[in-house]
Amino acid sequence: MRSADPEGKGRQLGGHPFSRVVLVGFMGSGKSTVGPLLARELGWDFTDLDSAIEEEAGCSIPTLFRSRGEEAFREIEDRVAQRVLLECEVVMASGGGWPCRPTRIKNLTDDTLSIWLRVSPERAIERAGRQGVQRPLLNVADPLGRAKELLAAREPYYQSARWWVDTEAYSVDEVVRHVIDRLRSDPERPLRA
Ligand code: S3P
After folding, report:
1. How far apart are CA 108 and CA 177, in angstroms?
2. Ligand 1 centroid to 25 CA: how many Å?
3. Contact 150, 26 (CB under 8 A)
4. Which ranges of the chain does DSSP label H, i.e. alpha helix?
5. Cα–Cα dist 183/191, whole Å
6. What is the mean pLDDT of residues 19-45?
7. 3-state SS class at 81
8. Strand pairing partners for 116?
9. pLDDT (0 to 100) of residue 14
10. Which of 11, 12, 32 lies closest to 91 in space, CA to CA?
11. Reduced 3-state DSSP string for 101-141
């Protein structure tokens, strides 16, 4: 088994085999809302990848996209994520585009639990609008059309996450509860909630 946690530190916590959790999913899927609550339940740290990128770049994500372009953003995103993924006892909320490279989720170490938070394009747009966080990729004349296109292209990547939870069927607290219950009861079995 490949492990970023050779001492098995995470394994001593609560009897599950994971040292970190990575939340993946489309914009507006609730990664940044679920993440801190899940981290609190686990007694772990929480890192929001977008915030860590902003800290590293010294500017907001919309400014980064505008001034240096998406490719520069993706390079910083990859570098910062690699750093976070070396940590133990951490929940990382990734950005919606981070898992969408051929081997990104597949290359995660075995002690990293990836969870896809599922959302429809309609709900994603509604939530993204309510949050007031600017998403450069949705800043177009037809955001719903764009979200549908992006999600269709990205779903195959999100599907390679180990666990899936539908965030439209459950409240934020229920999403967290599903994950915690499965970690306690049967962490090796794929969760499809
Ligand atoms: C992006 C999602 C955003 C942010 C950036 C690009 C994407 O994060 O990383 O605007 O490519 O889907 P959230 O998923 O947290 O909104």
Report:
1. 24
2. 9
3. yes
4. 31-42, 49-57, 61-84, 121-131, 143-158, 172-185
5. 10
6. 97
7. helix
8. 24, 164
9. 66
10. 32
11. CCCCCCCCCCCEEEEEEECCHHHHHHHHHHHCCCCHHHCCC
Q: Is the pLDDT of residue 9 over 80?
A: no
Comparing C-alpha atoms, which of 143, 192, 165, 175 is closest to residue 27?
A: 143
- DSSP assignment of 177-189, as one string? HHHHHHHHH-TTS
Confidence band, pLDDT 50/70/90 cuts, at residue 13: very low
Strand 90-93 to 45-48 pairing? parallel
Total-model pTM: 0.92
CA 95 / ligand 1 centre spacing (Å) = 4
- Residue 33 — very low, low, confident or very high, per pLDDT cuts 50/70/90? very high
As to burial, measured by CB atoms within 10 angstroms (0-12 exposed, 13-18 middle, 19+ buried), residue 36 is: middle
CB 27 within 8 A of CB 128: yes
Model confidence over 121-137: pLDDT tens digits?
999 999 988 877 789 99
Task: Indicate if the pLDDT at residue 15 is higher than 90.
Answer: no
| CA 56 – CA 79 distance, rounded (Å) | 10
Ligand 1, atom nearest to 25 Cα: 14
For a ligand 1 pocket test, name from 27, 123, 125, 127 the mutation site with the most ligand atoms within 8 angstroms of its C-beta: 27
Cβ–ligand 1 contact at 30 (below 6 Å): no
